[in-house]
Structure to design on (321 residues):
């Protein structure tokens, strides 16, 4: 009886041992899958974090050089970057987000040639939108005076805004190109172009501000040049053989379906603007305080630090998408 009881007890332990072994195998398989997915995510997130931090650093360096010119110059640069460019960039960035959705669907469906067509449609829509936004730069001074900004800051903002127009039109090409490459997991190209632009920007800022002494206008001009350097690198890579499956050349098909693309882009752009408008409103309200120069300068530094921090979660959102 004791022998049979021992055999029955050992037999009853066999299913338990099998379940434990299965649980260990499942746990090991889960860890392996998590590690694989993590590596896939970081291949996108890592370059995205670097490129976003680098691009944001271009604006930070510009404000730092403007701070050496004077309080009014720093306040003018800060208002143009955070209010004028911030509003327009937010709208164009949201509109370019529609391209991210369409390119992701086309790439998943293996309709690779459609990515190039979608990007060309985005170029057209964003360029037309940029033309309609151009009066914001041309009438910056009277608008800021109407909103209660000091005359000296508003006048200088008008000069800086005119030099920001080349940067404004670079968004039309840069934002679609970044999403076009991101959907193909080519974020490293964007990171390399951002690094080249950052190095060039530092050298140009030193040359324009200290060497040629071009003042606040030259400081703002360096931002546009740096962005165009990055845009030209991305454009050359995309159309000169870097993406043979997704870029098949310019096509008149890009002019079809523009209205539907515009509606999808506009909804995304307005949504992103509503999320960012309170930053612009905060800067404008700060400019109406006593001693607005110091107030705007201090707020711009705080917003710069906040902008740096936001680049990391935004990169994870891009990787998840």
């Amino acid at each position: 009886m004791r022998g049979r009881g021992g055999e029955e007890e050992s037999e009853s332990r066999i299913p338990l041992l099998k379940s434990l072994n299965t649980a260990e195998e499942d746990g090991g398989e889960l860890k392996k899958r998590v590690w694989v997915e993590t590596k896939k995510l970081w291949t996108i997130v890592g370059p995205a974090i670097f490129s976003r931090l680098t691009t944001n650093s271009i604006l930070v360096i510009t404000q730092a050089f403007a701070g050496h010119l004077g309080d009014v110059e720093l306040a003018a640069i800060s208002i143009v970057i955070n209010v004028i460019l911030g509003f327009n960039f937010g709208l164009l960035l949201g509109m370019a987000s529609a391209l991210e959705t369409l390119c992701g669907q086309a790439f998943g469906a293996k309709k690779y040639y459609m990515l190039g067509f979608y990007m060309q449609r985005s170029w057209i829509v964003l360029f037309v939108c940029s033309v309609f936004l151009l009066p914001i730069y041309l009438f910056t001074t009277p608008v800021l005076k109407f909103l209660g900004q000091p005359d000296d800051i508003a006048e200088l903002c008008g000069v800086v805004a005119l030099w920001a127009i080349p940067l404004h039109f670079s968004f039309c090409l840069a934002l679609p190109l970044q999403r076009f490459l991101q959907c193909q997991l080519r974020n490293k190209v964007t990171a390399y172009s951002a690094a080249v632009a950052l190095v060039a920007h530092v050298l140009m800022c030193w040359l324009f501000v200290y060497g040629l002494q071009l003042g606040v206008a030259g400081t703002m001009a360096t931002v546009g040049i740096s962005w165009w350097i990055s845009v030209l690198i991305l454009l050359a890579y995309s159309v000169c053989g870097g993406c043979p499956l997704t870029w098949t050349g310019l096509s008149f098909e890009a002019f079809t379906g523009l209205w539907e693309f515009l509606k999808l882009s506009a909804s995304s752009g307005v949504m992103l603007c509503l999320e960012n408008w309170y930053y612009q409103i905060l800067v404008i309200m700060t400019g109406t305080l006593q001693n607005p120069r110091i107030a705007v300068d201090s707020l711009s530094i705080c917003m710069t630090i906040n902008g740096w921090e936001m680049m990391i979660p935004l990169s994870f959102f891009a990787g998840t998408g």
